[in-house]
Amino acid sequence: MATKAELRNQITELKMDYINLQGDVEKMESLGHSDSVEKAVVRLEAMEKRLADLNKQLLELELQN
Fold first, then answer.
1. How would DSSP label each residue in 25-54?
2. pLDDT digits over 33-61, tens only?
């Protein structure tokens, strides 16, 4: 199992990637690239699930101490 610091780092990195991808989606939408937007939205949803999982793991570690 990852340490608190590792989980926090993973969460931070994932949040930054999420924000960048979100910006890309907005650009793609404005240019009319609907296929790319759909793929990116699927990636965003997967990132949201991963983020929820990491936050849950972090909470569990914090509750143990």
1. HHHHHHHT-HHHHHHHHHHHHHHHHHHHHH
2. 999 999 999 999 999 999 999 999 999 99
